[in-house]
UniProtKB/TrEMBL annotation:
This is 3',5'-cyclic AMP phosphodiesterase CpdA. Pfam families: Metallophos (PF00149). The lineage of its organism: Bacteria, Pseudomonadati, Bacteroidota, Bacteroidia, Bacteroidales. One of its GO terms (cellular component) is cytoplasm. One of its GO terms (molecular function) is hydrolase activity, acting on ester bonds. Residues 33-263 form the Calcineurin-like phosphoesterase domain. It comes from the Bacteria. It comes from Bacteroides luti.
Length: 325
């Protein structure tokens, strides 16, 4: 009878484990921490896109195998049609198979599938490699997260990563087409930033990831020192809700990384904060697109508070940039 009870407990634990998967700890390795940013997968369940969907997964696997990241972040427009769950299964398979922690931020087209964002987040949180969290009730959006990257030498927080839900579309056409990051999210970020600073007795360097770019991206698009392709006008909200100003006030976020505009992959600087695009990763085209598919790689240096970033395609490395706090 005792053996039966033990067996039942083991079976119950196995059944419950996927419901309560503990996220992996993010940690520097020999003072280095590497992030691969994929963006705008645009997985579509229509059978005519199967080859392109498979090509996207193949490219993701190749980039991960080449770069060996400590974290993958996908910045929106991921599984965008009916049959979205199958899309999420395929898109997350490279990280699951290769055992790489991953996080996502939602894009405007993710709201057009047959799987609500809240349901997607619950699905992702059953994956033992997912680190996407949620800021909880009272905060606009789904999947707002503050992730601490631990020191290579201790359990002390070393860097921070903020994920924001940049929403989708406005309900009032007089206010533009795209929605914006809300005041509740900005207040949440400021609160998180202050708590981490108090806990660690210093302001920690940070990065921020979201899908729709801030209006400030258009300010830097044609600057002389902006690096990369900037041929597409920035499709940002008309409303500037103040997130960039909050970054300036908190003095922690060194760079932001977005997607959304498929023909932009530039990085430019405003007030010593770097504003960067990822590289369009999905082979399904939403409009005329000019860039090879790939990813942005972001490598953090713990001791120097330094960031190195570049674009990685199947052909090689492009547009390398290094900056410090």
């Amino acid at each position: 009878m005792k053996k039966v009870q033990i067996l039942l407990v083991v079976i119950l634990q196995a059944l419950l484990l996927p419901l309560f998967a503990q996220p992996p700890k993010l940690k520097f390795n020999n003072n280095r921490f590497k992030i691969v940013q994929f963006t705008d997968i645009h997985w579509n369940s229509d059978s005519k896109y199967k080859v392109k969907n498979d090509s996207t997964e193949m490219m993701m696997r190749q980039v991960i195998k080449t770069e060996k990241p400590d974290l993958v972040i996908i910045t929106g427009d991921i599984s965008v049609s009916k049959g979205a769950k199958a899309g999420w299964e395929q898109v997350t398979r490279p990280m699951t198979d290769l055992k790489v922690p991953f996080a996502v931020t939602f894009g405007n087209h993710d709201t057009e599938s047959d799987m609500p964002k809240r349901e997607v987040l619950k699905y992702l949180q059953k994956n033992p490699h997912n680190v996407t969290q949620d800021s909880g009730n009272g905060i606009d959006g789904i999947g707002n997260s503050s992730l601490a990257v631990k020191s290579s030498e201790s359990d002390k927080d070393s860097w921070l990563i903020y994920l924001f839900d940049s929403h989708a579309y406005t309900n009032d056409s007089t206010m533009g087409h795209y929605d914006w990051i809300k005041k509740t999210q900005i207040d949440w970020y400021v609160d998180q930033s202050n708590k981490f600073a108090k806990k660690n007795r210093e302001v920690l360097p940070a990065l921020a990831f979201f899908h729709i770019p801030l209006p400030e991206y258009e300010y830097v698009r044609n600057q002389k020192n902006t690096l990369g392709n900037h041929s597409e006008e920035v499709c940002s909200p008309r409303i500037n809700s103040g997130l960039f100003w909050a970054f300036l006030q908190q003095k922690d976020v060194m760079a932001t990384f977005v997607g959304h505009d498929h023909n932009d992959d530039f990085i430019g600087s405003l007030a010593n904060i770097h504003l960067a695009y990822g590289r369009k990763s999905g082979y399904v085209s939403a409009y005329k697109e000019i860039l090879d598919r790939g990813a942005r790689v972001i490598e953090l240096h713990e001791k120097e508070k330094e960031v190195k970033t570049y674009i990685r395609t199947l052909k090689g490395i492009l547009l390398e940039c290094i900056f410090k706090k």
